[in-house]
Amino acid sequence: MSYYINLLLVLNALLFVSALPNPQQAGGSTSTPETLCANNNYDILAGTPWIVDNLVYNADQMVGSQCTYFDKVQTPAGQNEQILWSSVANIEYVQSTWSRTNTTAFKGNVCFDFMVSDTKGDSTSTAAQELMLWLQYEGGQLPIGWGNGPAATIDSLFGTSWKLYEDKNTDTGITVHSLLPDVQFDNTFDGDLKDWLEALVTLGRFKDSTYVNVGNAGTEFFYGDSILNATLSLQVNL
Fold first, then answer.
1. I want to staple 5 with a disulfide (CB 3.0 to 4.6 A). Which of 91, 118, 183, 215 is the partner?
2. pLDDT tens digits along 126-177
3. Residue range 89-120, pLDDT digits in tens
């Protein structure tokens, strides 16, 4: 790949932490604790290429609220830089880590979500592709393409086997490739995401010269009252 992102993720819970070259939504730069509640309200983490973004899934169809609380960036001795934050959701209905505390029925997932393209910087055209690595999911949440059945399987990746589901997102026109584990991850994930990308190259989904233009780590809430707390350790090798 032309841009590799290697992540060490210790999850107690999530919202989206993104590596974005040109953010378009309203926000600022911070290194101090902050509460983000408006949809697409974000902060650039000072001194890093990372963004904490309160990106509300299906916001125009949602009844309820979601807030993200950024805590701090820290670098423990001998470890990668870590981002600490939490997400609180109170969503009654949406159409369509990981210490998670649910006080009602909950539907959602924990995932990585990358955008790739043969064109550097492209994450929005129909020539781009969306890659999702689902780590944990509950409440009956299913990926785009579930009804088509698995398009492929991967026997061994991050200690388990995976099924790949694929189809076009009718809202964006972008094809989504979602890998779901046969054994879900419980609270902790530790892995080099380059292995995920290379597995998809082996399956012929894109070339090894393709650009990774956006990298997200987070959760998609559909409904429920839930609190998640997260520590995300990030290492990016260019």
1. 215
2. 999 999 999 889 888 899 999 999 999 999 999 999 999 999 999 899 999 9
3. 443 332 223 555 667 777 888 888 888 999 98
211: left (phi over 0), alpha (psi -120 to 50) or beta: beta
> Distance of CA 217 to CAs 93, 103, 147, 148, 226, Å?
23, 24, 25, 26, 18
Q: Tell me if 186 sits within 8 A of 98, measured CB to CB.
A: yes
The residue type of 118 is: D
The β-bridge partners of 211 are: 117
| Short-list 16, 14, 18, CA closest to 5 | 18
